[in-house]
Structure formats: C-alpha cells, structure tokens
Amino acid sequence: MFNQPYDYYPYSSKRSVQYAKNGMVATSSPLAAEAGLEILRMGGNAIDSAIATAACLTVVEPTSNGIGGDAFALVWFNQKLHGLNASGFAPERMNIDNIHSKGLDTIPRFGLVPITVPGVPAAWASLNQKFGKLSLIDCLRPAIRYALEGYPVSEHVAKHWQNAFNIYLKHLIGNEFKPWFETFSFNQKAPLRGQIVKLPHHAKTLETIGLTNSDDFYQGQIADQIDAFSQKYNGFIRKSDLMKYKPLWVDPISINYKGYDIYEIPPNGQGLIALQALNIIKGFDFSVKEDESTYHKQIEAIKLAFADGLSQISDPDFMKISHHQLLSDTYAQLRRDMITEHALEPTPFDFKDAGTVYLCTADHEGNMVSYIQSNYMGFGSGIVIPNTGIAMQNRGLNFSLETNHPNELKPFKRPYHTIIPGFIMKDKQAIGPFGVMGGFMQPQGHLQVIMNLIDFKMNPQSAVDAPRWQWVDHKKVIVEPSVSNEIIDALIKRGHEVKIESELSNFGRGQIILRNPETGVYTGGTEPRCDGHIALY
Fold first, then answer.
1. pTM of the entire structure?
2. Residues 354, 348: Cα–Cα separation, whole Å
3. Residue 495: which of 340, 343, 345 has the closest Cα?
4. Element (H, E) at 270
5. Average pLDDT over the chain, rounded to whole?
6. Residues 287 and 213 reside in one and the same domain
7. Is residue 294 in some structural domain?
C-alpha cells in the first residue's frame, strides 16, 4: 500500500520516506515540527501536537499565516473523523453598500476593508477543549519561547519575507500600515536567512490566548484593541463581531476514489472542488504518471470542477445547490463526458434549478490531525494591531460583489475559502491526513497527490516529490521545469497554453502521514519545495 518509489527526483537532494511507531509531525518548518514532537513527548496527543505546531508556525513562518487568520481541521479521534470550520465571517458593517460608499468597485487586497473575523485562536481553543490532554497554555509554550528568545529565519521563509516586504513597501501607504513595518521589519529591512528574529508582542498575545482559552481575543482586552484600531481607521470589524464568533463542528464530506474514501471539509471551503475533480477522473484508468494523456485528463477534470466551484461555493446557508448534487456519480459522468482530446474552455454547468501553512500529526494511540491555517496572500491585509503581533487576514477579498451570486458579500457570512485539509480512509479505517497549501493550487495539489498515492502507488515522499502542474485560468497551465518537453509539446498540441514556472512554491507545499492499519506504523512525506520537515519518534 503506497510503497512505490518515484525514481525521478527534480530537486537538488532526494528525501527519504520516513517511518515511526509512536508519533509523527510533518509541516513546512523544522522548528514548528520539532515543537509538535516536544508536546507528544510531554504526554500530549496528536491534537495537542497540532495546536503547538500551528502556534509555532505563526511565529517562525509569519509569511504564510498568523494569529489573525483562519483555520480548518480534520481530526481522527476515538474511531471517528471530525471536521472543524474555523473560518471567520464578514463583520456586521461589511456590506456592498458600505464598500461602494468608500468609492470602491472591488474589494481591495490591503487595508481594513477586506478583514473578516479571525478564526485561528478559537480553532486552537476548540480543538483543545474537545480533544486535548494538555492545557492550551502548555500547547502554546514552545511558540511563546520562540517568540521571546528568538529563532533563526529559514531559507524559504526569508525569501518570501523579502518578497512581501518589497510589495508592502510599495503598496502600504498610510499610518494604519505602520504597525506592520514595526512588527515585521528590522532596521527597515526584511530579515536575512539565519538572522535571529524575536517577536515579543506575539509572545504576549499567545500567552494571553493560552491563559484565557482564547476568550480574551474575542471578548476581552485584545478584542478592545482590534475594535479601537478598526474604528480609528474607519474599518468594519468591531468587538461585537468578535463576541458573536464561534467555530463550527461539521460533518466531513467524501467520495470513494478507487476503493479509498477521500474526505474534505464541506463548503465554504474549496475541498468540494478536489472531490469533484477526483469523482470525474475516477472513470479513467491510469498506469503511468509521466504521460501527456494523464496530464491532459487531470487538467480537464480540475478545470470543470473549478468552473462549478467558483460559481457555486459559498457559506452553505447561501448555496443554491448542495454538495450532494455536485458529487453525485450521475453528474460526474456528465462532466466526464465533456472531456475530449482537446483543451476545453471551462464554463460552469447551468443549474437552472438550483502564503498558507499545512501540518499533520499522529500519536501512539492512532489519533491523527489534518490541519491548515492562513492569513491569505502571505501576511494578509497588511494590517497589524499595534503591540500585539496580530496580522489580520484579508479573506473578505474572496467575496463577490455581484448581486444574487451565491458568494455575494453579506454581514455574518463566511466567504469562499481556499484552505483545505484532506484525509484518507479505507473500509472505515483511518489511513491518514494529507494536504497541499497554496491558494487555488490546493484542490489541484490534492488531486495530484491522491492520484500519485492511489493510481501510481507512490509512497508519501514520492507522492509530494513528483512534478506538478497548475491550471491558472481559461486554457492556461503552468508546469514545473521537471516536466518533460515531450509532455509540454503534446499538451500544447491539444490546445493547452503551457508555461514553465521556475518558482516552485507556486505549486503548493504538502505533507502526508499514513498509518498502516495492520502494524500501526506511520509513513510520512514532506515537501521539497519549502523547508519541510518530519519530526518523529
């Protein structure tokens, strides 16, 4: 099961698949992964470990996530899979009329306008209260320590920090953005790789969240600070919005893909797109990954799934059709029949009736967590609440201003969301968590990784090592430099507009932990496109 190596490695060093008996933590930062392992060794379970790892990532990889972001989780605990939707909703004052009253025709990327209520602190508290063995403050201690004592910035994080600094230096004009530069620049520069960075305001905020089980963030002094800063600069979010927020425990959704049950969080997340694409493509047989026919069918399936998802996915209370309709075998066959030998221009079906971080953890009891959190587009809105280290997300950017669109902006509504954790089961037994972070690449990464595991029988490390592609829009596709010229030429002949992309982070960053149901041994793979690391014992 999932044990075949992939012989061609396009990266400078080949990583070996990892095995462990007692516990495993996989994520994009070695420091965060080791913090998760520290919690396991203290007697914490996989859920405690996931919280610790996630909190550390807000400190050691702030380029991709933060305390002011959102989170989703799939948790295998006590022989049941649980889903947590900790995405935030639009503030009460955030509506289309108020957007237009600011002279805006679109929701901007930066500033107070696109800020939705953060879900990350509540995610940690909810996971801890429902499943944890340790206290929340114990889980946050490693992150607090890194923030206070400092940590050396890793290579990939330094690169993304510099890119973000260059963008923000150009676009963040105004006093409301000064706290970002005060928090995340050092001597008016982005930190270099290996440079020691301390984030004392993060430490104070994390300690407060831990000691109050996140209540202070939503009802206390931190909420007051968010409210005051938003009012000062005419933003929408208020303490009253924070006080109304609660994460949602949800039933995961799934499809059966060639004998394996693949699970995702239901909308408002885009995991539905990954499942729909897999449901379409399961009607084909594949034997070779590096084949232009394989690439073509994968790309066409994801295009059709995105066409439907982008037109239909929203807060589930506002969706006009259900995920059951999109995931039915009848509809999958209808969409499958649309795939020809040539590239399609994707269009949604006419239903007339109708920067992110990922981590996974596992413990000796068989508990496993698939967890993802993000501020969106790197640091998010560019707004940092002074003296807190809280970088606020800009998830409101994904709302539509189109009247009667399922994803139309409305107060207290959750937007279409990009971050998605995944989980694999077979015959009602847990196989394990997987994920690929990176905006709209995520469903595409899920499709490719699952096919690498199941169709091509790769081990977890090989499954994340293998070359990737990304559909961009219309007939445009980018591919990694490791994709062969023969495949690229064949795809072009089929009508795809193919471009080689050298920035490998554009193809997502994934982690996988799989458990052998017979032996209990964990097998892990971590991403070569970042500072990926597996901590285990």
1. 0.94
2. 13
3. 343
4. none
5. 94
6. no
7. yes
